[in-house]
Amino acid sequence: MCNYNIITMKVFINNFNLDALPNILTSFNDSLVKTEVYIQVYSIDGIYKIDSSKILKLTAVDSDIEILKDYCSPFTLIIDRSYFTEEVATMFDPEHVSTKIKKCIFEFNKNPNFKLIIEGAYVEDHNIFQKSVSFSTVPNNIYFEGDNNLNINDALVKKELIGLLSLLN
User: Fold this and answer.
1) What residues have CB less than 8 Å from 105, skipping those under 6 apart?
2) Is 152 exposed, middle or buried (0-12, 13-18, 19+ CB in 10 A)?
3) 135 within 8 A of 123, measured Cβ to Cβ
4) What is the DSSP letter of 153?
5) Which residue range is the domain that position 155 belongs to?
6) How far apart are CA 95 and CA 52, in angstroms?
7) Any bridge partners for residue 63, and if so which?
8) What domain count does the chain have?
9) Cys-Cys link to 106, which of 31, 43, 82, 100 (CB 3.0-4.6 A)?
């Protein structure tokens, strides 16, 4: 079995208003570098991620969170260095709950330390007056993702993060 380890830190903005996100997103279209759609499965024997080519069992590797009050006024950041290891699986328990997720990845410069990630439930809209089925995303998570070894207080890293935060203000 193949194992995949994705070791990144997530930087969350404390009390970010997700309702403001649709208005902000229109100016980010040119910075969208990748979109992933997958199914997140929760069962008695674990969490799974299903994409178009494989089923992965996710195992959480927890870490303490770090809170940086007024990192850049008025933003308080929450640093989470927890991550998931991924292992190829062939099946999961038939008793489960699943959610279709759309993950949008944005980069605002070349070779960035951080990417902006916006995730949301991928919802089907079955309109009886239309012949086609449309999909929309309801954002429920926004964070910056960077290498787990980054020093969040390094002057250049901080300058980049402040620049990203200003885009959301």
Assistant:
1) 32, 33, 34, 35, 36, 115, 116, 117
2) middle
3) yes
4) T
5) 3-168
6) 21
7) none
8) 1
9) 31
The owner of tokens 């993950």 is 103
CB burial of 113-150 (b: ≥16 within 10 Å; e: otherwise) equals bbbbbbbbebeeeeeeeeeeeeeebebeebbbbbeeeb
Which residue's structure tokens are 């997720």?
A: 101
Beta bridge partners of 89: 55
**CA-angle at 61, arms to 93 and 21, nearest 5°:** 85
pLDDT at 128: 54
- 């308080």: which residue's tokens? 76
User: CATH no. for residue 120?
Assistant: 3.20.100
Q: What is the pLDDT of residues 43-82, one digit of tens each?
A: 999 999 999 889 999 999 999 999 999 888 788 999 999 9
Name the pTM for this structure.
Answer: 0.83
- Tokens 């429920």, located at residue: 140
